[in-house]
Amino acid sequence: MEKLLTLFTSAVAACEAALAAAMRASAARRFSFWDAMLLAAAGEAGCAAIVSEDMARGAELAGVRVVPAFDGSDPHADALALLAG
Questions:
Q1: Three-state DSSP class for 45?
Q2: Which site in 40, 52, 58, 69 is 20 to 30 Å from 77, CA atoms measured?
């Protein structure tokens, strides 16, 4: 559990480019603004994927792919693989 918690100890400030990308994606109705902001900031931080339980599986913005958190009531295999590092 402690190893898992160390994955979540850094924070990244969103830059103007991430804000602009989020606004464009939101205006195009591809994502809600906050989902788009999360993806755009993750892209700026160098993330390749994020785990989400409510964004569409396989959706992508700023080079960041959405991976489903669950498969029914169980963790999704792709999410487990990402978290395992």
A1: coil
A2: 40
Go through the chain and tell me how many residues it has: 85
Number of Cβ atoms within 10 Å of the Cβ of 34: 10
End-to-end C-alpha distance for the chain, whole angstroms? 14
CA distance 78 to 55: 15
Domain spans of the chain, in order of start? 2-84
Instruction: Write the CB contacts of 6 (distance below 8 Å, at least 6 apart in sequence).
Output: none
To the question of pTM greater than 0.70 for the whole model, the response is: yes
The answer to whether the CB of 52 falls within 8 A of the CB of 72 is no
In sequence order, the 6+-apart residues with CB closer than 8 A to the CB of 2 are none
Q: State the Cα–Cα distance between residues 42 and 12, nearest whole angstrom.
A: 8
